[in-house]
């Protein structure tokens, strides 16, 4: 038996040189809402929530960090989602998959779509403005 009990995912944090830009993306594309964020003084944070309980914490990148920029913190949008590394993404599900994909395309977001052999699982892969991989899928809904 695991030591922790009643475990559930609380939040995911993303570091960004432009937390406002990243917050706007998640609000406009996936419907996150901004919630009250603590004030840390020396760096900016924006907390977002996807009801009912998932949170995304956007934290200003430390400009004096000795860590190099990673491919997941790009200065401009990554253009080729076919190269999204399979182990580095956040996944969401939607009930209006086809409409959502059209919305992404209307916004000029480069996407890579996939339908699994079962015909029920449809996925779209893309990047946020910092190059973080995103997957949105429709699991268990027959293809139309």
Structural commentary:
The protein is α/β, with parallel strands linked by helices. The protein has two domains: 8-61, 2,3-Dihydroxybiphenyl 1,2-Dioxygenase, domain 1; 73-144, 2,3-Dihydroxybiphenyl 1,2-Dioxygenase, domain 1, CATH 3.10.180.10. It contains two helices and eight strands; from the N terminus they run E-H-E-E-E-E-H-E-E-E. The protein has helices at residues 19-30, 97-106, and strands spanning 11-16, 33-35, 45-50, 54-60, 89-93, 112-115, 122-127, 133-138. The strands form two sheets. The chain has a four-stranded mixed β-sheet, with helices on one face. A hairpin with a 6-residue loop joins strand 6 (112-115) and strand 7. It comes from Beta vulgaris subsp. vulgaris (Beet). This is VOC domain-containing protein. Pfam families: Glyoxalase.
């Amino acid at each position: 038996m695991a030591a922790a009990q009643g475990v559930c995912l609380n939040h995911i944090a993303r570091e960004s040189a432009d937390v406002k830009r990243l917050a706007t993306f998640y609000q406009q594309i996936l419907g996150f809402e901004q919630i009250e964020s603590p004030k840390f003084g020396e760096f900016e944070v924006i907390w977002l929530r996807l009801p009912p309980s998932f949170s995304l914490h956007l934290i200003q990148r430390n400009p004096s960090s000795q860590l190099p920029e990673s491919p997941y913190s790009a200065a401009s949008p990554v253009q080729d989602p076919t190269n999204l590394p399979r182990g580095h993404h956040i996944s969401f599900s939607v009930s209006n998959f086809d409409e959502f994909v059209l919305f992404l395309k209307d916004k000029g977001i480069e996407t890579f779509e996939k339908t699994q052999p079962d015909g029920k699982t449809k996925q779209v892969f893309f990047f946020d403005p910092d190059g973080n991989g995103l997957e949105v899928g429709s699991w268990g809904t027959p293809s139309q």
